[in-house]
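[09:14] KT: can someone run the structure on this one? pasting the chain below
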Amino acid sequence: MATHINQTLEIHWTGNFLSWHRYYTWLYEKALQEECGYTGTQPYWNWGISAITGLANSPVFDGSATSMSGNGVPQPGTPDLVLGVSVGLPPIVLPPGTGGGCVTSGPFQSMSVNLGPVGLELPGGGISTNPAGPFAYNPRCLKRSLTDYINRRYANASSILSNILVPTDIQAFQTQMQGIGGVEIGIHGGGHFAMGGDPGRDFYTSPGDPAFYLHHAMIDRVWWIWQLLDPSKRAKGSTAIAGTRTFLNMPPSADATIEDYINAGFAGGEPIKIKDALNTTKGPFCYVYL
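[09:31] RB: done, C-alpha cells below
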C-alpha cells in the first residue's frame, strides 16, 4: 500500500497507468506464491457477473471462507457520495451502499488497515485524511459498503464490452476506462466504488482492501483482450501508450515513453521499462486470462 500511496499521482491518468498496475498486481501474485505458500494464480473479479448476481451473492463478496470477505455492518441514514467537488469538477452523485462499517464475515473480518486515509471520499461530500500523515500508523478495521447500483451502472457486461470494442487507440481506451471527470467514473471507478468503504473509496490507499488485486486483475484482463484485437499496435511500440507522467498532466510534464521505468519501490521487484510490461507473455510475465 505504501508504494501505491507514494506514487498515486504518477500512476493514474498517466501514460503508465495500465503497465504500472499490471506489474504491481503481478508482483503481488509473486509474493503470495513465494512468501506465503500460495499455490494458485491471481484471480480476477468479473464485474459483469456480479452486476447480474448482486455483490452479496458473488463468490468474491459472499462472506464465505473462500471469499474476499463480505459487506460491512450497515450504517442506516448514510448520505450519498458526492464525487468531484473537492477538486473542482462537476459532481457525480452515488448511493452509499448497504454496508459502511467493519467487515464481519470471511477471512478478512479481523483484518487491520494501517495506513491512511489519504483521500477517502466521504458520504455527503468531502475528503478524510489522517492528520498525522499518509504513512503514520493508524490501525482500523477493514470497512466495505457493497453497492450494486454502482456495479450495475458503471461496470456491467455492456460497459466492459464497450471499453473493449469502441476505443481504437490507447488514449481513448484508458480514458473510457478511468472515466471522465464530472461525467463518468468508468469501469475502473465502478469497481472501486462498488466495493466502497475504507480504504476502497480512497484513491491512494485502495490496495489496503485485498479485493483491490482481483479488481485490478480484471482491469488487466480487459486491457489484455483489447490488446489482442490489434497486438502490433496495442502491445508494442509507441502506439501502445499515451499520456504524460503526471496525474491529468498536473503539473504539466513530458509524455511518457515506452523507455520509461516502472519502479515498484517498497513493493519490491526490479524496475522494468514500460515496453517490457506491454505483453503478458514476454518480459517478466508468462500468463494469459480465461
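[09:33] KT: thanks! The beta strands are 72-74, 81-83, 92-94, 100-103, 112-113, 120-121, 127-128, 140-141, 261-262, 272-273.
[09:34] RB: yep, looked fine to me
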